[in-house]
Design brief:
alpha/beta; four-stranded mixed sheet; binds uridine-diphosphate-N-acetylglucosamine; binds phosphoenolpyruvate; cell wall biogenesis/degradation
Amino acid sequence: MNGLNDRIYIEGGHQLKGSIRIQGSKNAALPMMAASLLHRGVSVLKGCPRIADVFCMEEILQKLGAVTWWEDHDLYMDCENAGKWSVPFEFTGRMRSSVILLGALLARNGKGSLGYPGGCVIGKRPIDMHLFVLRKLGAVITEKQGFLVAEAPYLQGALVSFSKRSVGATQQGILGAVLADGETVLENCACEPEIQWLCRYMRSMGAKIQGDGTSEIRIQGVKSLSAGCIQVPPDRIVSGTYICAAAVTRSQIVLENPPEGELKAFLEVYRKMGGQYKGNSGKLLVNGKNVQSPVKLLETGVYPGFPTDLQSPVMAVLSTIEGESCIREMVFEDRYKAADQLQKMGARIRVQGNEAVICGVKTLHGAAVQAQELRGGAALILAALGAKGVTALEGYSFVQRGYEHICQDLNALGAAVKRIQE
Ligand SMILES: CC(=O)N[C@H]1[C@@H](OP(=O)(O)OP(=O)(O)OC[C@H]2O[C@@H](n3ccc(=O)[nH]c3=O)[C@H](O)[C@@H]2O)O[C@H](CO)[C@@H](O)[C@@H]1O
Ligand SMILES: C=C(OP(=O)(O)O)C(=O)O
């Protein structure tokens, strides 16, 4: 998207206060939507975030023949007639998560074809392990001019050992195995909470899955699945982003329903920066007034390690803490796109390979900056909140992939963020 609609203006320097409700999780909702294809009837996701990626997945389901509708934040998907099996590149190129539809299409139809997945450009992001697990389950997959074509008259349970932990490939394996003949054992699985949420949802449909949340997942194939219904969990990355908003403005806010238990590694780093927090009856009181300590080394990692999705939001905060901090990005090869833009705002960041050294400054200043991907874009908004003067951020549509109403949320807390609609 180009033009004014893709631009927001943030006037920095306002203290935040008040409380905020956390939207449903993007990375939990998307695989659940793919899983809904496995029931030939109506399934529902309650509290589903109304964000660009969810709308894109909804369009894909419609393209496959599903009928979908919303009741407030509840998304209904009638997949009775979703018997088409091909998704063109114009849809899959917009979103990384589209790739896990391959397992769902194979499980439902015995065949599926898909344009190559898009999503945030934060590294190479190959899909070798996605194809590996489906091939292990019996699929024959060919790749032609950016198009994947997979066929399997039936899928057969198998022992599959992943060479590294991948959230998407683990989900792909689960989707492919739930309706396969016999037992599947997935080894070296990712343990991210979104995998457990997918499994909870699929168990509500009658799937037999055990071990999610550990590195070994066992799936006993069943003949069919019934209607799914679940409350989409609150988004841990959005929660972390708003905690960073309190930290960068040295403010105190309340998150109404954050998944505190899923935020341990992040909260540990926030605490090292001088941030304080207190959980109380499902709410989290976050006090960023004493955020002032640099962090010697923050390493991202697979869950329960520090989430790579919160790396750039924390970089924005560290840019405002005097002294030297260091980040080591261990998951993606190219996830420092926000650093150049933060420098335009006066940040002092040196990126070398997978390390970023940040020499915090007392105050950042407003500038014209460009978001190039989702979380990097959110990081620029955070930096702008704490900066002196006005920041014009181009590329807001990247942020809208994952944040339902970040501008309204921040304004409700006292920020001054403006979007000029064409
Ligand atoms: C929609 C969604 O849930 N996205 C999340 C998901 O992305 P996604 O599922 O794409 O991330 P993965 O866990 O698969 O990626 C982890 C690492 O494995 C590599 N890899 C992955 C698959 C593969 O076939 N081969 C391979 O080498 C990737 O390039 C990366 O270096 O987990 C990431 C890591 O927590 C998060 O940053 C993303 O927000
Ligand atoms: C990288 C992300 O999303 P995706 O995997 O969909 O590109 C993200 O949510 O930060």
